[in-house]
Amino acid sequence: MTRTxxxxxxxxxxxxxxxxxxxxxxxxxxxxxxVPIFDKLFKxxxxxxxxxxxxxxxxxxxxxLMLGLASSGMCWLFxxxxxxxxxxxxxLDKR
Length: 95
What we know:
The chain is an all-alpha fold. The chain has one domain. Helices cover 85% and strands 0% of the residues. The chain has helices spanning 3-21, 26-32, 36-43, 45-60, 64-94. The radius of gyration is 15 Å and the shape is globular. The relative contact order is 0.15.
């Protein structure tokens, strides 16, 4: 895996987190998620990660499908790691 690919995958994860959790996007996200398909998209890390990867793949002119699939997996992995860390933090705070 090249350094460029790692940077692109990290960019996908970052864009995914900004789109899904960024407070600056609360208002537009609230409007967009009124449409049922976008509501489902923003609740699914695999789905949103795939489309973020496709968009970045188009931008960097790489194999769009492959970056979309790799992004989907990375976004899901990092999103779940984040959930585990937050759950552990909550349990520690309750002590």
